[in-house]
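Do me a favour: review this protein, sequence plus structure tokens, and tell me how the chain folds. Record follows.
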Amino acid sequence: MNIKDLKNYGIPSCVLDIWKENYSPHLLPLQEEAVRNYGILSCVGNEEGRIQYAPTGDNNKREEVRNDGIANQNLLVIAPPSSGKSFLGEMAAMAQAIHQKKIIYLTPFRFYAEEKYSYFQNLYSNCGAESIISTRNRKEDDCRILQGDYKLAVMDCEKFNYFLLMYPEFLSDVSLVIIDEMQIIDDPKWGHLLEEIIDQLLKKDLANLRIIALSALIKNQDILLKWFPAHLLISYPHPVEMRKGVVREGVFKYTTSKEEKDFRREVFFKPEAVRDNCFEDYLLKTVKYFIKKDESTLIFFATPEETRQRAGWLASRLESPAASSAIKELYQMEETLSRNELLELLGKGVAYYNPELSWEERNLMETYLKKGEIKIVCASTKYSIGLNLPFKNIIIPSDKIHNNDGNYLHDYRTGLSFTDIQNMSRRAGNENFGRIIFLAHSLLSETIHRNTYFNSSGHRNKHKTANRQPIKQEKDLLTYLLRLVVKHRLKSDEIKKYVREGGNRLSGYWHFSFKQENIEKKIDRYLNILKGNKLIKEIKGGILSPTAKGILSTALIIKAETYISLKSWMEYSKKGEISELEILLLLAFSADGRALPIPFSQFYKDDEQKGSYSQNCRGNYRNKLLHLVIKQGEEDKKFYRNKIMLKKIKEEAIPLEYYLAFKKTCLLYDWIKEDKDIKSIEQKYGLYVGTIQLLGEGFSWLADNLMEIAKNEGWKKDREEDLNKIKILSERLIDGVEEEGLNLSLLHIPGLSRYYIKKLLHAGYNNGQCLKELSEEELAKVLSQKLARRIKKGINFKNGEFVTEKPTTENRRLPS
């Protein structure tokens, strides 16, 4: 089916022109199937637009799907990466927009929401399909969502959950919710939140709401289908031929996606060129082979540290062309630790790609990989969802990291599953074929790789998936009980029985496991804590019900312990006397602040059992905080006496959590003070710019939650000045700017970092109107040429706000 044929489904020519310009003139098989048989372009809510499913072929089974409420309209698409499923969501959204329906595009993470928002604005804003965005630090359009003044709203899961609990009526006129990256439901950290969101959607009596969920291959597919009421559209073939196999003694023995039973061979290097049991030899020889063939290669490693080490090791041993244009542009950027490392690597056409890079550095890597200058990229596996780069070859290691703790004490790795490998290989291939490669540097590793990939049940029968319920070891029983009361109205005895049974009876997709020792006493104690802090209450019949405060705590997705500690501080803090330093330390000691990861060196650990640190490191951050507290004349504050003075703790035994809280506080205090450049901060704290930015965003979220709780406690009326101080701090933490730089920071221009904001301020430009009036040439005297061009050509004013537009698209409008 051709794109132009979609005019028969009511899609106007202005949209078809955009699709033809940005995609293939032809639909991929998955896309054609969705159009013909799954009503992807149907508009729910119009009787003549009701979705009719074709009762042919294997799709007969879809009629067995539960038919309660809106279930018969829902669609779950499961397909390998690069199969065209993202375009399905785009097609469905535009089909709704031309009928004046409202669409919410839901993404798992904030950064992905930003990408989708920019993408939709670039493509569709000029033809009248304007998009808006709402995430935890993008609130400018929240009122429009509540008022229904939008066509397409891009939201992340955290913000969507907040709206569902606090403003449930906002969905009343929404016709379509698209859930992208649905496979995140299998993630132990984020999956339960997505499950809660879907449960809330399914419970609502909204006959005209349709859910379209887009998922890569998922481990527990059968369990998902039993839980989520939807018609299933599943596709296994990769759009291009994939050659998947193992390199042993120089020979790549592989199967293709078309002929999975027959092995083929490709010689990469001679057997004598490598040493047995030496992974490095195999890696180097394989990479050299691809460089000679002028092919791009992505190599996955478990941690950001490994990506840097391996990229440096490869660059020191390769003779390959330099990425000259990338080097020239990188020299113009802010000096950071990663910039200096990348300059050396790019001299050999090598780079690394991980969360520790700044946005500008990642964007540079993406640009010059697409241009063909960068040939070898080492990336961390946990960053693979945001990796939208084209590669001919992907080399996959034998292990994968599953937590976000960097170098934390309890860092762990687990083996890759068949599904992990399938999804990690999403970026392999061009118009002809791609390779997915395991390096069998020993006989044992060869056996492991073949068992992992070729002998798995998924490879023998690709329609067969795991059939076990995902189970999470739940440690935060206090928060779990609060969320349980918010979701279900239960008596205390019912809660105890439920928890003893492992949280199975009322659960949907995820089940929970608890340590059963003294569990009933713990439940009684925690329920009393929740009652005492007015987060839950007992109503008629002994049923436990959430209060407005309990619902707010759950909507903010913070731990109950965090809510209680923040509220306790509010009660004894003095009006007009709170400070930035005090708020930062408060957030650092909260349960959620302690959970925000920050890498630290294992070198400093001197007692694994006590988790304490050597004297040289342990006292530094505490002493700095004491100096700042005394300098500000705040040493008499109760909070500082409890947390910094440490009267009950010996100097030589500061606990690990205190050490890290002190470090985070000092780091972020320096981050929001523009007297230090980012490289100095990196060197001082032993961290990279991306890590600092992520921590700043995490604390911005916590400060924002503190503000919401303070509003609920009446601060808007009684302590408005203090409330505004928290609000400003939250905004400053995102980009690490002084208050005078907020007008520029809040424009949300990609790449406009604290470094460039500071340069603009020194040049006398402190708001968006200044940027509008300057020419690109004038801006380029202050900023990099690329950033100046991005501001002038990609961003314009509309109703006093910055909006992104695609300058090459004609001014065409959708029919009203």
Notes: The chain is about 45% helix and 15% strand. The mean pLDDT is 83. Residues 689-712 form the longest helix (24 residues).
